[in-house]
Amino acid sequence: MGAEWELGAEAGGSLLLCAALLAAGCALGLRLGRGRGAADRGVLIWLCYDALVHFALEGPFVYLSLLGNVANSDGLIASLCISCRSPCACASCMAAG
User: Where do the TM regions start and end (predicted)?
Assistant: First the structure.
């Protein structure tokens, strides 16, 4: 495997955060789904994971977009937005100039 398969620190951090959110979503969904059928537990796991992703990843992005600029921020969530560090056509980067 060549250099094109190597992950940067930001990508590794993003994968770790998503894995932690998945583990937390599974644990929370299984706890809330005690006494329910397998399909109900699966749906609860998905809903818990989805809610955690919205709060942990998308919430700070919206906050930074409304009150600042993701492209110019040095925060953890902004560092996960790799595309904002290189030239792209997203709204945040276009606003930053």
Answer: 12-32, 44-66
Return the top range by mean pLDDT from 8-22, 30-44, 54-68: 30-44
The residue range of the domain holding 11 is 3-95
Is 65:92 a contact under the CB 8 Å cutoff?
A: yes
What pTM was computed for the model? 0.62
Q: How many CB atoms lie within 10 A of CB 29?
A: 20
- The answer to whether the beta carbons of residues 69 and 92 sit under 8 Å apart is yes
Q: Report the distance separating Cα 4 and Cα 24, nearest Å.
A: 31
DSSP labels, 48-82: HHHHHHIIIIIHHHHHHHHHS-GGG--SHHHHH-G
How many domains is the chain partitioned into structurally? 1
The neighbour count for residue 37, using CB atoms within 10 Å, is 9
- End-to-end Cα, the chain, rounded Å: 36
